[in-house]
Amino acid sequence: MKNKVKSLVLLLGLLVATYLVFFILQPTRFGSAESLFILLQQCLLPSIAACGFYFVLTMGLFDFSIGANIILSALVACMLSVQFGFVGLVIGAILVGTLVGVANGFLYLKFKIPSIIATVGLMIIYECVASYLAGGNSYVLAEEYRILGQAPWNIIIAVIAFAIAMFIIKFTRTGIYIKAIGKNEPMAQNMGVNVSKYKVIGFILCGFFTGITALLTICYSSTVIPVQGMSSMSRNFTPIMGCFIGLAFKKYVNPVISIIIGEFIIAMIISGIMTNGLDSTLQNTIIGVILLVIVAAMGLKNKGKAEVVK
Amino acid sequence: MSKEVLIRTQDLSKTFGTTKAVKQVSFEVYKGEIHGLIGENGSGKSTITNMITGIHTVTSGEMFLEGQKYEPKNQLDANRHGVSIIVQEMNTIEDLTVAENIFFGNEELFIRNGVIDSKAMNKKAREYLDVFGFDKINPADDVVHYTFEERKMIELVKATYFNPKLLVVDETTTALSHDGREKLYELIRHVKNRGGSVIVISHDLQEVLELCDSITVLRDGEHIKSFPVTDEITEDDLKKHMVGRELSGKYYREDTHSNIEGEVVMSLKDVNVEGILSNINLELHKGEILGIGGLTESGMHELGKVMFGALENQTGTVSLPQKNVEIGSIKTAIASGVAYASKNRDQEGLMINASILDNVCLSSMDKLQRKGFISPKRERRFTNEYATKMNVKMENINQFVSALSGGNKQKVVLAKWLGRDSDILVLDSPTRGIDVMVKASIYELMQELTKQGKSIVMISEEILELIGMCDRLVVLKDGEITGELLREEGLSEEKIIHYMI
């Protein structure tokens, strides 16, 4: 498989090139082994969420509520940890995340409207639910639980999440059917696949992985502050980017691998821009341009047919 | 040997919207036979087999498989009953491996404790692929890496690995190379030798006669005749059944006169389009039906576009001598009364997801407007007038065009141009995919229009309709005019084919 090698080389080449660009620009402040390790830990968060989003995006669907889900799940987990300790923290985050996925899936089916619109509406609602629950306060996770956000625990949790995602994609009927629906929905339906069921499953999986991301998020940052007015959108950005990269390479590289590499590249770019001291307006402009370039490049790769999102 | 019935249909019918695609068809296929299903385009062949194989639901009627009532819910359910199909189009799913495609829907064969054993799956796929000698196909590869033909071969394995009782082969041969066909024939005989039955749909009548034990003829959704194949039966006999006797009557034009006395309304001089058309010189007369025939790739479809100013890279001139206009763009063509109905009706001729009203009014906005405003009332009156004139079968003029049958869609296209009162109509494959009744009404309309002094260019791949309708017939081959025949000289199929190839 020449193409397989080519794609891997391209992906790793991108990784090295990104590193070199910023290292040459800021040899003293960017790219030490230590800072790379920090970046690696940073990119675990969006990588896990991107693995979940992959199941939705593969079917041509979208989920804009990932950020709101992270905030809501993290908040509930934080609250539950007060009473139930580690169990409340871990189960709370994953359970709430998954339940949000269930709600997304069923309401998408029920509304019969494009998933982008359905999940934007739901995002606003989840943000509000989190605000009600918090009652205007921010919640801080107790010191002793934050250990899950530190090495090696965060890495262990992430590896387990990646393994689950890979397993589902590769070795279950769900993985096969989700791919089939994404490629040719009418045909899959005709072959006896219950398309609605697997769309709901896709959203549930997305919620499940988002829940794991929420768990690590609260352990990393220790504080959760509910936001409103679609501010949670900014948390959607990196998982979505990584997922696009995963999809772009899916023919040749296991999507979980390319998602992780993609997220690492994004983390380097963001931190590289920051170490170069660009002001935040310029930073955001550059990030926006990068998003467009990656998606457009994906479109070119597929001979002008960018994957359609319904 | 007494013959046992494998599958029997009883008054099987299928309706799509207002179109009756299949009307109360009853026929049976015996065990161990190869059964040919033939008929013109739109006669309902594929619709019937799609019902048998669970792709379409049945509107009314029943099916019996080995005497048991048979109601497949989907293709997979049909497979479980031992019925499978190889379709015309590509039917493998990209992003899945060869093995995943072959066993799609039957993963439980390889699931151990909820986990798919890919190794076992690939191994089994390898075995089945080897049976047919497809050793170049690797079960673990994504199907995207294979050619159309190889993917068809994968479908052959997918459709037969479970030893089906009934295999349907829907016009697969035309898409395959010689080797691919041989593989397919081998497979069909293999199924038969094991006691299974095969239904073959094909336009290649010679192939049908060679391959099949019996034949069923369909026309316009109705069952015409079923009979065993004997040495006496010829291709012509089959054609006669397919077209039907009444067609030789009032179906086409009855006169044998070439009406080319009218003045020249369109003239093409030295038209060249690189790689497609060379040195085309042609004149169209008032009141004439000018036929243009040839093979699909002969350049005839492009010639139609040239007449409508829709190609950009041409040299030479297309002019309307009476109006002293040279056509260089679609805009001038429309403004000077040239109309064009594309072969690709749904993509180029209509706005599918818009109402009949929007479609009919689109090219006549300049006529409908008063001082820059368009009155909805006038639009409705205009649409009603022409849709009624064309006898479009519809609920009302606000219905979306996507809900209409092929024939009615074509009527909407024609209504649009008649509304503009176009003098020259360039019709590319006007009866493509249209049932016999609507065909007849389109032929009738064409004659009516020429009587009113309009001129028609009819581009068609169907030789019979060209013979039946044209005053004059121009045959194209490789972008050049190879022959010009007049109606009164007597047109025959052989003569025309001679110029085509």
UniProtKB/TrEMBL annotation, chain A:
The keyword Magnesium does not apply. The keyword Membrane applies. The chain crosses the membrane at residues 7-25, 37-57, 64-82, 88-109, 116-135, 147-169, 200-227, 233-249, 256-275, 281-300. It comes from the Bacteria. It is found in: Cell membrane. InterPro entries: ABC_transp_permease. It is a multi-pass membrane protein. One of its GO terms (cellular component) is plasma membrane. One of its GO terms (molecular function) is transmembrane transporter activity. Keywords: Cell membrane, Membrane, Transmembrane, Transmembrane helix. PANTHER family: ABC TRANSPORTER PERMEASE PROTEIN YPHD-RELATED-RELATED. This is ABC transporter permease. The lineage of its organism: Bacteria, Bacillati, Bacillota, Clostridia, Christensenellales.
UniProtKB/TrEMBL annotation, chain B:
Residues 7-245, 260-499 form the ABC transporter domain. Keywords: ATP-binding, Nucleotide-binding, Repeat, Transport. Pfam families: ABC_tran (PF00005). One of its GO terms (molecular function) is ATP hydrolysis activity. SUPFAM superfamilies: P-loop containing nucleoside triphosphate hydrolases. The keyword Nucleotide-binding applies. CDD domains: ABC_Carb_Monos_I, ABC_Carb_Monos_II. It comes from the Bacteria. PANTHER family: CARBOHYDRATE TRANSPORT ATP-BINDING PROTEIN MG119-RELATED, GALACTOFURANOSE TRANSPORTER ATP-BINDING PROTEIN YTFR. This is Sugar ABC transporter ATP-binding protein. It comes from Christensenella massiliensis. The lineage of its organism: Bacteria, Bacillati, Bacillota, Clostridia, Christensenellales.
